[in-house]
Design brief:
2 domains; single chain; 5 strands; about 10% strand; alpha+beta; 9 helices; Glutaredoxin
Length: about 210
Amino acid sequence: MDKKRIIIWALFILGLIGLLVLLAKLGTKPAPSSPGTALPSSVTDADWSKGSPTAKHTIVEYSDFQCPGCASFYPLLKRLVDENPSDVRIVYRFFPLRSIHTNAQKSAQAAHAAGLQGKFWEMHDALFNTQDSWGKDERPELSFEDLAVSLGLDGRKFKDDLNNPATADRVNRDFNSAQAAGLGGTPTLFFDGVLIKTPGSYDELVALIKSGK
């Protein structure tokens, strides 16, 4: 066998090995979740929630503060729980799509840091309302700090909590549960522990909780 043929066979074998490795890696990824999939982890006191803990229904939302779709959807959930506080509880879970939204991780940490001072939902709303501004910032932390001050938070504590590794770990906990469940985008909703297709209107949300009674 001449030298040229040996090189060709060697390249072929290396390519085959590379293909097998790639297929093995792809095989380890969870299959994308579809409606009916169970909530990856139970709701606990560590989750950020709004509405009565004894509400008839619970909606868990995996969301990204830099996601335009989430910003459009959040007023619907806000209205739903404001108008039906005894019927529905909303649970927010962090799912920052870091590969496409460069400021998503830090914005999630900002919400959690505000929550440590009792203002999670206020920061939640403020982040969505100002998304067009901080979403383009190279240093979004400055915008988050301004929002914190406007909400009456202790600025120094907020800054410390924002950059605390424990805050990043808390965000990553939700992110990892979403990844393990194979969730592919935001917003993703679980209704009473089961993945559902995201409703397209407020009326559909109301119909959802009424149908579950």
